[in-house]
Structure formats: structure tokens, C-alpha cells
Amino acid sequence: MTRIKQSISWWCFVPQHMTPQTLVRTAADIGYEAIELVAPEYWQLIKDHGLTIASFSGHQSIPDGLNRRENGDRIEAELRSSIQQAETWSIPNVIVFSGNRNGLDDITGAEITAENLRRVAKTAEDAGVNLVIELLNSKVDHPDYQCDSTAWGVKVCQMVDSPRVKLLYDIYHMQIMEGDVIRTIREDHQYFGHYHTAGNPGRNEIDETQELNYRPIMQAIVDSGYEGYVGQEFLPKGDAVASLKQAFDICNVG
Prior knowledge:
By secondary structure, this protein is an alpha/beta fold. The chain has helices spanning 20-30, 43-48, 72-89, 106-127, 150-160, 171-177, 181-188, 214-223, 240-251; strands at 5-9, 34-36, 52-53, 55-57, 93-96, 130-134, 165-170, 192-197, 229-232. The protein has one domain: Alpha-Beta Barrel (TIM Barrel), CATH 3.20.20.150.
């Protein structure tokens, strides 16, 4: 059985809690296999420490995304460039965003999002790169964001019908929106290309102070046959190194 491969979301720790060099050394020392959501100028530093870059954002922006036809040409160009970068650097996941509703109904938004993703799906397939639509909560952190439910994201993936267009199942965000995390993983895991963590409420450590029980969640991911990365995307309240070690141990199942 495959053990969970873990990564760290750069923006949660640099520069607030440590330097780039400290984060990368810490990740390698603890046993993390990857870093993600990091600017390209640090990619070589990550590679030099024997780590993978698990993901990066493929286009601008979260609120102004794939659900608008007028964004199609711009985002297609941005994604083609991002896919090429991902292939060159062996980055498995390029993150994409639905954009906000701004009055757009969910059916039309899904159709347009799928239409725009189909423009680059073959390019992603040829490069061996996943385009992962991030599921975000619209209740607390991203008001009006359209891809705020697993069902909506799954519908888009089904309409695109590409093995390289999947969802980034962010456990923190989906706990806020719909809960029932383990059942969702069991039922829809074939559509999940990447995972993120954080404690809820507060987006802090994934310890006993919050409501999610991460060890059985990780076991459900392992049991699904998933072989990708799980990214720690929490904001530490205490010592960042200790929090990263604790999170690694909690999620180190398989």
C-alpha cells in the first residue's frame, strides 16, 4: 500500500515564520517530499534539496477565472505557458480556478468552465500534467466563488472528460461548505488529483484543537489508491517547525 506523500504550501510559512532556505531544509529533514505554491525563483532551491514542486497556480486570478467566456483567450495562453513550465520542471499539478459567480448561475458557469478547460485539456494530457480545479469555500474565505461544492466540480470534470482535468479537494474548504469528508473521498476520489489540509475553524494546525480528524481522512485517501501529494496548507499559531513535524506525523499513514 502506498504511503501518503506530503508537501508544504510555501505561502503559509515564508516569510512569516522562516526563510526560504530554512523551510526547504526543514521539509527535507522531517521527510516531506515536496513544496508547492512557490514562486519560480525558488524552484531550483527546492530541486537542489531533492524535493518536488507539487503544484503552482496556472493563471490569474481566483475571482476572475474560467467561468467567463471573455477570459478564455487570456487563460488559455496563461495555461499553455504554465503547462510547459510544469512539464519542464516535472511539476505534476497546475491549479486552476472557476472564478466568482457575479450573478452567473451554476449550470451556465459549469458549462463555460468546462468549455475553457477543453481548450487546453489535450495539451495537459500530452505533457502528463494535471489541471486541478480548486474547491474553495464561499462562506468564509472566498465569497461568491463558484467551485464551492464537490458536486459542481465533479460535473465540470465529467463535461471535460479528460484524465488530466481533476479537482483539488481542499479538506479545510470543503469541511466548511459540506462536511462528510471521508464519504466524499470514498465516492468521488477518481475526480481528485490533489489534496490540501488545514484545521477548521481557523485554518490552523491539524491537531486536536480543531474539528477534523485527519488520520482517518488520510487513511481514506490511501485506501482510495491515491498516489499523489497531500499539501499541508495551514497557518501555524505556534512554533512552525514543530507544527510541520506534528502534521507530518498525523498524516504519515499507509
